[in-house]
Specification:
Layout: H1 12-15, H2 18-21, H3 24-35, H4 60-68, H5 72-83, H6 86-94, H7 100-109, H8 113-122, H9 134-147, H10 155-164, H11 179-210, H12 222-262, H13 283-289, H14 300-307, H15 312-335
Helix pairs in contact: 5-6, 5-7, 7-8, 7-9, 8-10, 9-10, 9-11, 11-12, 14-15
Length: 354
């Protein structure tokens, strides 16, 4: 069997694959390739601006030579996308300009869904690393917008345009992360921030309780008491605003999670650390998001939503509310000794789509 003398550059999910271990020649080729890459593939934060496709069979010299080439039409197409000029973009697309960089730029800057739809329909390399698969770029850009407080209107429409053009919803990017992994990591960051916010709120409440009342303070310290009250009010208002914004962001990301899963995203896929998207979430988040005995949804809800001209998020809200009513009925039956073996229910008030 092929033995690696130095530290293996293969992600753990590939390094521990028994099929790869049974093919030493392929293992050797992959080690040589990963070892010569321009960034560490196991680290999601590296290689942010690397714009080559390593899924092709070209050598690194050919890839670097291709990077030095300048395509004037592609640059003008990217400029038209940045300026929102669809007429000029259509003209350049008709002139066979390279659409892949412009598509990724449109996703990164939050271009209109119509722009993404136009570019995706003309792109034949949606699943290659230029610099990452299109769905992964969409996920990173959407999560960055969510963390910066920008609205996520049109995010699902952009995802549908990519999938309709042939993008793979389970394609992997840096760190072997799928779109669900990226979304789960963002939800994890928001949850950690909410925990820190809770601790700061408790500290502020304790500070208010420990501060002496201003009934018996001397006249000279009245200004200090007023300043303290003003600062407390300002900090409380800031905390309320931050809490409201964080909750709205989490709700929007929860809907995007269901949009992804209802379109076939696999929540059990492992990343470079051999962790699934579910394992990045807290127990409370898993309860809110998923059924307890199943890690992926079927496509029935998505097909029904498409045929009934409703978004998958609305369809999820409908199915979730109906599932709650069924779960309450089952609970009442269990109290009186009735039949609780009702199909289509699960722990957490979610619907199992079989």
């Amino acid at each position: 069997m092929y033995k690696v003398d130095k530290a293996s550059m293969l992600p753990a999910v590939m390094r521990n694959d028994p099929c790869l271990a049974a093919r030493p020649d392929m293992r050797r080729s992959m080690e040589e390739w990963w070892g010569g890459s321009l960034w560490d593939p196991r680290d999601p934060s590296s290689g942010e601006f690397f714009g080559s496709d390593f899924t092709c069979g070209s050598s690194m010299r050919d890839v670097l030579a291709a990077l030095r080439l300048s395509d004037g039409e592609s640059e003008r197409l990217a400029l038209a996308v940045a300026e929102g000029d669809l007429v000029e973009a259509e003209r350049l697309l008709a002139a066979s300009a390279d659409v892949t960089p412009a598509l990724h730029l449109a996703l990164q800057i939050g271009a209109a869904p119509e722009t993404v739809e136009l570019l995706a329909a003309c792109c034949s390399r949606l699943n290659v690393w230029l610099p990452e698969p299109a769905v992964v770029t969409w996920a990173r850009a959407t999560c960055r917008a969510a963390l910066s407080g920008r609205p996520l209107r049109g995010a699902t429409a952009k995802l549908d345009s990519l999938l309709l053009a042939g993008a793979d919803v389970n394609s992997i990017g840096r760190g072997c992360e799928t779109a669900l992994h990226i979304l789960a990591r963002t939800l994890q960051l928001l949850w950690q921030e909410s925990q820190r916010y809770s601790l700061r709120s408790k500290s502020l409440s304790r500070e208010i309780q420990e501060h002496p009342s201003d009934k018996n303070v001397f006249e000279g310290s009245a200004v200090t008491a007023l300043l303290f009250a003003f600062n407390v009010e300002r900090r409380c208002n800031q905390r309320c605003h931050e809490s409201s914004t964080s909750q709205e962001t989490q709700q929007e990301l929860n809907k995007l999670w269901h949009d992804l899963v209802s379109r076939g995203a696999d929540a059990s896929m492992a990343d470079g650390e051999s962790s699934s998207a579910l394992e990045r979430l807290s127990a409370t988040q898993c309860t809110d998001l998923l059924v307890s005995k199943r890690r992926t949804y079927a496509m029935r809800r998505y097909h029904h939503a498409r045929t009934s001209h409703t978004s998958s998020s609305e369809q999820w809200d409908i199915s979730r509310s109906s599932a709650r009513s069924v779960a309450e009925t089952v609970e009442e039956k269990s109290k009186i000794g009735g039949d609780t073996d009702t199909p289509g229910t699960a722990v957490g008030g979610a619907m199992v789509c079989g």
